[in-house]
Amino acid sequence: MLKQLLKAGLVVAVSIGLVACGTNDTSELEDVTSGDEEVVEVDPAVAGGSDASEIKEIPVHVEGETEMRKAQFNRSGLGYSIYVLEDFQLESEEPNRDIIYSKFDQHYFARVIVHGPDADAENIKKNLLEHAEGDIEELEVPLSNVEFALHEMVESNGEKTSIKHLAKKYNGQLIEFTLFLPEREPIEGMEPSFWAMLETVDY
Fold first, then answer.
1. How far is 163 from 32, CA to CA, in rounded Å?
2. pLDDT at site 35
3. Quick one: average pLDDT of 94-103?
4. 71 domain-assigned
5. Which of 86, 107, 176, 196 is deepest in the core (most CB within 10 A)?
6. PROSITE patterns given for it (predicted)?
7. Other CB atoms within 10 Å distance of the CB of residue 53
8. What is the pLDDT at residue 49?
9. Which CATH number covers residue 61?
10. Which domain holds residue 68?
């Protein structure tokens, strides 16, 4: 339903007016998130899908408390696995890229890019710093052993959006994540939900 959703650029991402699922009125955004992508070959046997029986509760840390919420196992066509919380959706966006978005507000989303085993995390980080559209700085994140983590703040049409850039290796495969979080009331629950899902990523 969102095959054309959010080919995101850092400025336009905060100003697009995405409409509800099922419509064709979506905006394409210029992508400036990284420049070191490579084609990752994936065994068709592990191409995307999920099993309705593979549901478990995962911890979501919200305002100092931990809530256990149901999440569905998904195997991406890019080869990695992730548990996706109810009220969120994982879809393929384009080659080497997936998107996880909130069904309630699609302005809250995370992009997942599989760069493969030979990508240089430092080059990706350098590219992000060079193309940042807003203030950008180092960031501490609740994921361990990340290659880098950056926080960028952009503003458009009077609305601020917090953008978290990070990359981590899973069994030698470099995966980049970009979280887009408009600074509105839902961010208090949205951001912890995304971190909880990313904690479950494996390759």
1. 13
2. 44
3. 93
4. yes
5. 176
6. PROKAR_LIPOPROTEIN
7. 7
8. 55
9. 3.40.1000.10
10. 50-202
- Report pLDDT for 50: 53
Helix (H, G, I), strand (E, B) or coil at 198: helix
Q: Please tell me the predicted confidence (pLDDT) of residue 120.
A: 96
Mean of pLDDT values over 57-74:
95
The residues facing 138 across adjacent strands are: 150
Q: What one-letter code names the amino acid at 118?
A: D
3-state DSSP call for residue 192? Answer: helix
Domain membership of residue 113 (yes or no) is yes
Domain count, the chain: 1
Q: What is the DSSP string of 107-131?
A: TSEEEEEEEETT--HHHHHHHHHHH
Q: Is 16 part of any domain?
A: no
- 119 burial class (0-12, 13-18, 19+ CB within 10 angstroms)? buried
Enumerate the H helices of the chain as residue ranges.
121-131, 187-198
pLDDT at 100: 98
